[in-house]
Amino acid sequence: MLMKVSEEVLINKILSGDESAMRGLYDRYCGVLSTTCRRYITDEDDTKDVLQDAFIKIFNKLNTFEYRGEGSLLAWMTRVVVNEALKYLRDVSRRNIVSTTWELPDVSDQDDEPDDISSIPPETLLKLIQELPDGYRAVFNLYVFEQKSHKEIAQLLGINEASSASQYHRAKKTLKKRINELIKKHHNE
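Structure for RNA polymerase sigma-70 factor, ECF subfamily, as requested:
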């Protein structure tokens, strides 16, 4: 029943103390927010912990949320989850972000896109992203999925802009190589 009500109605029910509405919100968005969290954190138990912390923050801060139309709640909750995931990466010192400045290699003669990504299932792509080193993965996710600039990423992660750009490039290069290996393997079978 609560799965079909609008975000605005769901928010109002939660703010009025309706515990079933809280469960409804969790049920409605847990899957998509879990996927968002897994883009940053590979360990399943850590993902669950971070997601739990994010939902606690969501419920505690929902009264500060400004509803701006259908979809705005999910966008806000996604930001909370991403921020909690980044906080986790910083707090537990699990990131592998190098804070030196690197020269970006000249990529003008390289293809940026893998041969045929359409043949790879989304679950496989997510797994490949999860296999990136922590720093590469964090920068890649923030740049691609959260559409942050390298300046914003640098501020969020406490690194410099050149490191963000370099790590993004290296993440893309690593993903491209792994995707092309999968495509080649698939064509040879």
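Helices lie at 7-15, 19-40, 44-61, 72-91, 122-130, 134-144, 150-157, 161-188.
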